[in-house]
Design a protein that fits this description.
This protein is of the alpha+beta class and 445 residues long. Helix content is 40%, strand content 10%. The chain has helices spanning 21-32, 42-48, 64-70, 133-138, 150-155, 179-185, 194-200, 203-215, 222-230, 239-251, 255-265, 268-271, 274-277, 280-294, 306-314, 345-361, 368-375, 380-391, 394-406; strands at residues 5-7, 37-40, 57-60, 74-77, 83-88, 91-97, 164-167, 172-175, 187-188, 218-219, 337-338, 341-342. The strands form three sheets. The protein has an eight-stranded mixed β-sheet. The relative contact order is 0.07.
Length: 445
């Protein structure tokens, strides 16, 4: 077993004050009950870089149903690998048992150290190799459901900067994979042979490029070479998973540089070749506008819906357009897919509504009755977001936003120009249908 590099609290900048309070609750409770409990993955990386993490994930020696027994607000999910989700309102803290890497075709070995019965969980069905010829030939791992040690868990992760652990027991950083050195030199390096790791999970190729783009890191020289050799494998990934990765890119604040580097790497040729054949300058401007909007917020705002994000790709490509001043004049989408990516019918329909409202939003001198009707449109908020992103009409955006605030339908602006998060919308009480119901004991005529 390799000796890890351990950085004591006095030698690093990560503070518990910067960790989500609910994540701390989970870490402390696991520790109090005798389990190892680490903050893991991208959250440790981002905190060491003094960035705000998107999620706070936890790794532990506790098995999923042991975690469930400690938290009433816990649900066990997953088929490929069981995870515990501890929910605090709308927030979810993901807790994963340490696991180990399995060679392709050997999935389904029993958990290390303790059986399912001893861990207090139902016995899972034995996972067997899928038998798909392409999987056996390429080495893609479809199941990965075997528990392991912290060291084994670190070595099964994708990149060294994502393999760092924060130990709540000692407040130290634990590094089995050399991630601290790569963090200092700003390098994205694969854990293990990139050829093997990319064959196991081709989506790692996309993530490597995006991670380097988002953090302004450089790629280790072995990664671009491995991507060139294995880029066609990305087409074997689940389309829904690739679509989710695209939405993450579009919400990251580094969409323009990420898609430019994905094009240079050759990956876009196998996922969305349409992005390479359209108006490159127009698409770049749309992505730059999206990144500028995203930079105003600490986290991706709810206003960046999937319809807005997909429209940012589709409209510059000419797959959507306006022929006239009404929603009926929006051209029908050419396709419901973008390369390999399946686009939701609901998102396409919302995008049609959003584009159809754009000319109306520019007509701020319309009669009051017409404006009131527009305020009731379900797609109005998405339409205003689109206008703010791509319409270059700040006066019109300010007019409609002020009108919404005046009517109590939008949050007033905070000091930085964003919406005040402490504001709550006024809710109108619904009137009961059928009149007031009689209660027991009411006098009857």
């Amino acid at each position: 077993m390799a000796e890890p590099t351990i950085l004591p609290r006095s030698k690093h900048v990560l503070s518990r004050r910067e960790i989500d309070p609910d994540a701390l609750k989970v870490l402390y409770r696991l520790h109090r009950h005798g389990f190892s409990a680490y903050l893991v993955g991208g959250s440790v990386r981002d905190l060491l870089l003094r960035r705000r993490p998107k999620d706070f994930d936890i790794g532990t020696s506790a098995h999923p149903y042991q975690v469930k027994r400690l938290f009433r607000n816990c649900w066990v999910i997953g088929r490929r690998f069981r995870l515990a989700h501890v929910r605090f309102g709308t927030k979810t803290i993901e807790v994963a048992t340490f696991r180990r890497k399995l060679p392709a075709g050997t999935e389904g070995e029993p958990p290390l150290g303790v059986s399912s019965a001893q861990a207090g969980e139902p016995s899972p069905p034995v996972a067997r190799p899928t038998g798909r010829p392409q999987d056996l030939a390429s080495g893609i791992v479809r199941r990965d459901n075997t528990f392991g040690t912290p060291e084994e868990d670190a070595f099964r992760r994708d990149f060294t900067v994502n393999g760092l652990f924060y130990d709540i027991a000692t407040f130290s950083i634990i590094d089995y994979v050399g991630g601290l050195g790569d963090l200092a030199t700003r390098v994205v390096r694969s854990i293990g042979d990139p050829d093997e790791r990319f064959q196991e999970d081709p989506v790692r190729m996309l993530r490597a490029v995006v991670l380097a783009s988002r953090l302004d890191f450089t790629l280790d020289s072995a990664i671009p070479e491995a991507i060139r050799r294995h880029a066609p494998l990305i087409a074997q990934s689940a389309p829904a998973r690739l679509l989710d990765e695209y939405y993450k890119i579009l919400r990251s604040g580094a969409a323009q540089i990420s898609f430019a580097r994905l094009a240079d790497s050759g990956l876009l040729d196998h996922i969305t070749p349409d992005l390479l054949t359209g108006d490159h300058a127009r698409l770049a401007r749309a992505l730059e506008a999206l990144d500028t909007y995203r930079a105003r917020f600490a986290q991706a705002p709810e206003t960046l819906t999937n319809a807005i994000l997909m429209g940012t790709l589709l409209v510059p490509l000419g797959l959507f357009g306006l022929r006239g001043p009404s929603q009926d004049d929006v051209e029908a989408p050419v396709t419901r897919t973008l390369g390999l990516l399946p686009v939701s019918r609901r998102d396409l329909e919302r995008l049609v509504q959003v584009l159809g409202l754009q000319p109306r939003l520019l007509q701020t001198d319309r009669p009051v009755r017409a404006q009131r009707g527009l305020l009731q449109r379900g797609a109005l908020r998405d339409a205003l977001t689109w206008l703010e992103l791509h319409g270059n009409q700040p006066d019109a955006v300010a007019y409609w936003h002020d009108l919404l605030v005046e009517r109590g339908q939008a949050r007033p602006a905070a000091g930085n120009g964003t919406e005040d998060p402490t504001w709550r919308a006024r809710r109108r009480r619904r009137r009961r249908r059928g009149g007031r119901r009689s209660r027991p004991g009411d006098a009857r005529n």
